[in-house]
Amino acid sequence: MSALVDPAWLHRRRNDPAVKLIEIAGMNQDEMQAYKAGHVPGAVCWKWKEMLWDPLRRDFPSPGDFARRCGEAGIGNDTTVVFYGEGVQFGFYAWWTFRYCGHRKVKMLDGARYRWAAEGRPLTIEEPPPAAPVTYAPAKRVERMRVLRDKLFKVLRDNAALLLDGRSPEEYRGERVGGPEGPDVGALRYGRIPGAKHLYFEELLDTNKAFKPAAELQQLVAARGADPGKDIITYCRMSHRATVLYFALTELLGFKKVKIYDGSWTEWGNLVGAPVER
Asked: What is the domain extent for residue 138?
């Protein structure tokens, strides 16, 4: 079954207790402003760092901590979790994190609130009541989805994978280290990982933040040298935008050999001795 669902699919399941809808509040949404102004009916809101990161380390929750968080949120191992984000990339980051942390039934709402509203569907300011806690059995992480920096050094030495950079053109060219329209912070050095091809995540989306047709996506990735036989690694600044590329490649185009370098530029741009291209 597809990991991408449209508003009609979600509407049909609006009263299904086995489906949990979650909006992820991303950068500049510390007060959950977008959610409070109007969200898809039935959605609860999570702040991305609080729910998707370890409380101390730059890492994901341990299997035990992930299980505790899910259980407290009313999510069991067989619950179908549907994400969307504000900005949209944070929903994909949650999808990827859940998959990495071993949750199998997780989907994305195509176009987030933008397509939902464009189709004439209502938004609401009403928040659903807290879910009753359930038991969640800890699951094993799916390590094949991720590449760490030491492995990436070897990949570069051996020219063993195609790297796709999902950041903005300004970041890719080495003119900024921060994302568009935000503070220019996040790394000490400007540039990109040597050899990386540029594919800004917004190029994959239409004006309603929904994915473009698969044929157009195929043309975009092929133009960067991607094909199903190659190992591919996606990255951006903090890996949120990289998860949009990962989703398109794996879930919409059927690529199997894709990983994310989730350290991304905030790690690489601060590493002593790491090569940089501009």
From this structure: 4-142
Given the residues 45, 70, 101, 236, select the one marked as catalytic.
236
236 is catalytic: yes
Closest to 265 in 3D by CA, of 201, 187, 194, 199: 187
User: Model pTM?
Assistant: 0.97
Structure tokens at 181: 């329209």
* Mean pLDDT of successive 10-residue stretches along the chain, which has 278 residues: 93 96 96 98 97 94 97 98 98 98 98 98 96 97 97 96 98 96 93 98 98 98 96 98 98 98 98 96
- Long-range contacts for 127-132 (Cβ within 8 Å, ≥24 apart)? 127/44, 127/45, 128/42, 128/43, 128/44, 130/74, 131/20, 131/44, 131/73, 131/74, 131/75, 132/74
Is the same domain home to 132 and 218?
A: no
Measured between alpha carbons, how far is 223 from 203 in angstroms, rounded to an integer?
A: 12
Q: Do 151 and 124 share a structural domain?
A: no
DSSP classification of residue 79: P
273: in domain: no
Give the model confidence (pLDDT) of 32-51 as tens digits. Answer: 999 999 999 999 999 999 99
